[in-house]
Amino acid sequence: MAELIDLVLLAMLALTALRVIFLKDLFAVVMLFGIYSFLSALIFVSLDAVDVAFTEAAVGAGISTVLMLGTLALTGRKEKESKHSSVLPLIVVLVTGAALIYGTLDMPPFGNPDNPIHQHVAPRYIEESPKEVGLPNMVTSVLASYRGFDTFGETVVVFSAAIGVIALLGIRRREEDEAPESGFKAHRVLRNVAKLIIPLVILFALYVQFHGDFGPGGGFQAGVIAAAAFILYALVFGLPHSYAVIGPKFLQVLAPLGVLLYASVGLYSMLNGGHFLDYNKLATDPVAGQHYGIIIIELGVGITVFAVMLSLFYAFASQIERSNVQ
């Protein structure tokens, strides 16, 4: 039954991708990209990768769709006819795809218990992580503790991406009386429903943030979900109202604060005679130190991801308002 579900989802992914290739209506393409992300999230759930499914659904189908719609508002809905031949791009895609498929031939069979990862890496985490880290969720143990350096690098990359986008687009804040009509003031039902949904989304984000050591979740997923709640608020009630709740300048302080909070855990570990991000030095009991360290660094990740995602939306939304004024 599981294999049948995977085959159906894979077929739907392929059909969605093929439809995207031939469509000229970019609005429909963006909607199909959102469907593609939802299907990918379902595949991740089928593979028991619920943490990744959270991220794919929130980022791919949620925030990315909003940002692409914002891009369409600046560029246009219809794809322009290309004056160049499509033969060369087709050849490049075919050659690249063939190279990628060729590169997978040496990979071990999927799910084979004799694969190297199941003989060396997985047993090490399965047997030792309950004693060394003490968290029920092994994914959090790997990402936040064993791969703490990688996760810190990913957080810095997210922060750097925000710097690049804001440097290119900027965030122009307009006062409410100067700003053009935004939001859905005439849609009373939509506004009332949003008032009910947004607090629940924020509550769920907090649950994902502080329950990630016991179940699927963590800082990245929680930050994206919380940002999606405020993006919904800005879309329904207007950008000036969203600025009044969380302004761009506050986000510019919040984004590096999360990175610094993450790095401070490593520096504190070094001051106590350990290595960078050695959580064992945070408490007399090494397992308790692991718990403290993971909670703090996950909070740092959540703060940075939330600030970055909302800043990206503000950058695109302010550009749309600027173009409407002009």
In short:
This protein is an all-alpha fold.
Report on the structure:
The chain is mainly α. It folds into two domains: 79 residues; 185 residues, no CATH class. It is built from twelve helices and no strands. Helix 3 packs parallel to helix 9, helix 6 packs across helix 12 and helix 9 runs parallel beside helix 12. The chain starts with a helix and ends with a helix. It is found in: Cell membrane. InterPro entries: CPA3_antiporter_subunitB, MnhB, MrpA_C/MbhD, MrpA_C/MbhE, Nuo/plastoQ_OxRdtase_6_NuoJ. Keywords: Cell membrane, Membrane, Transmembrane, Transmembrane helix. This is DUF4040 domain-containing protein. Its main location: membrane.
Question: What is the count of structural domains?
Answer: 2
Percent of sequence in beta strands: under 5%
Molecular shape: globular
Number of helices: 12
- Contiguous runs where pLDDT drops below 50 for at least 5 residues: 176-180
List its salient traits.
globular, mainly alpha, 75% helix, 326 residues, 2 domains, single chain, 12 helices
Question: What is the topological layout?
Answer:
Elements: H1 2-22, H2 26-46, H3 50-75, H4 87-103, H5 116-132, H6 138-146, H7 148-169, H8 188-210, H9 219-237, H10 239-245, H11 248-271, H12 286-325
Transmembrane segments: 6-22, 29-47, 53-75, 87-105, 152-171, 192-210, 222-239, 251-271, 291-317
Domain MrpA C-terminal/MbhE: 115-173
Protein name: DUF4040 domain-containing protein
